[in-house]
From TrEMBL:
Protein's organism: Dentiscutata erythropus
Entry keyword annotation includes Nucleus: yes
InterPro entries documented for this protein: Brix, Rpf2
Disordered as annotated region, ranges: 288-315
Residue stretches spanning the membrane: none
Nucleus in keyword set: yes
GO biological process, one term: ribosomal large subunit assembly
Family (UniProt): Belongs to the RPF2 family.
Record keywords: Nucleus
Gene Ontology molecular function terms on file: rRNA binding
Annotated protein name in UniProt: Ribosome production factor 2 homolog
Length: 315
């Protein structure tokens, strides 16, 4: 860990102030680090993934002796020094060829990590097509039931959304939607502990497409997808999940950001507002109905009944 020291000048004070916790966080920075041994497939994958989120990423080209599953001290130092909360480590060995490790940080420590192996890769430069602009937010498509049932896939889905989330926006122009990331999970998986590798007979297919909008004769344009790259076939390997207590603290939303609850108004599953109206106790005897002579009450006393009928005849 870096030592906490008092700033000696105004520049250092501004840097430390930017690193302080905020109610509304800035866009997360990701670092891409090469291990002690890498392959050309891994190097190309690190460069292409860094290019997809080019605005908030740092790509290190020098090799580093980093093994986060064995000792995460060096990874904590790298992220703290660069003020990064996301990281990708590439390595290559006989036991784990073409290896990538996706991870997240919280409070200066590694929160969770997922290791995948690249079984098939197509770089962005190999696909001759139009590329997206820098700094654009992607759309995501997750295909497969495993993203709803498997804990490993749920974490991988959450991690990918965290990697490409970028800056929080209140609204977005339709012309700013330039590319789509499609992630498909196949097969079945057996969730494992944090220390042992997970066994899986399925794969995760990572694809990136650009959005082509053409005229449709209607108000909404016609949307077509064209493959942009990169394209990967991942196989899940080792995982390390955060403890439940730490994960709750990491995902806790400040009270100031929580929407104020309006009394007697809820939102249903579809997203429609539903209001609750509270009425007082109703007395049906005082209910105003249509006035008819046949519905008039007759007095209970017989004498009064005769007088009443006599008056009625007179009328």
């Amino acid at each position: 860990m870096l030592k906490t020291i008092k700033p000696k000048n105004a520049r250092a004070k501004r840097i430390l102030k930017k690193r302080e916790p905020k109610v509304e966080e800035n866009a997360k920075t990701a670092i891409f680090v090469r291990g002690s041994t890498t392959s050309q497939v891994v190097n190309d994958a690190l460069s292409d993934l860094c290019c997809l989120r080019r605005s908030n990423s740092i790509n290190f080209t020098k090799k580093n002796n980093i093994h986060p599953f064995d000792d995460d001290t060096s990874m904590n130092f790298f992220c703290a020094k660069n003020d990064a909360s996301l990281f990708v480590i590439g390595s290559h060995s006989k036991k784990r060829p073409h290896n990538l490790i996706f991870g997240r940080m919280f409070d200066g420590q590694v929160l969770d990590m997922i290791e995948v192996g690249i079984e098939k890769a197509i770089t962005m430069s190999e696909i001759k097509s139009q590329k997206c602009s820098v700094g654009m937010k992607p759309l995501f498509i997750f295909n497969g039931d495993l993203f709803e049932t498997s804990q490993v896939h749920k974490t991988f889905k959450n991690m990918m959304l965290d990697f490409f989330r970028g800056q929080t926006l209140e609204s977005i122009n339709i012309s700013g939607l330039e590319y789509v990331i499609s992630i498909t999970a196949t097969g079945s998986i057996v969730d494992s502990d944090s220390t042992t590798p997970s066994t899986s007979d399925g794969k995760i297919f990572f694809r990136v497409y650009t959005i082509q909008m053409t005229k449709s004769g209607q108000k909404a344009p016609r949307v077509e997808l064209e493959e942009m790259g990169p394209s990967y076939d991942f196989k899940l390997r080792r995982t390390k999940f955060a403890k439940e207590e730490v994960y709750k603290i990491a995902t806790k939303v400040p009270k100031t950001l929580k929407p104020k609850k309006v009394k007697n108004i809820d939102v249903n599953e579809i997203g429609d507002k539903v209001g609750h109206i509270h009425l007082g106790r109703q007395d049906l005897s005082k209910l105003q109905t249509r006035k008819m002579k046949g519905l008039k009450r007759i007095p209970e006393d017989d004498d009064q009944t005769e007088d009443w009928s006599h008056k009625k005849r007179k009328v």
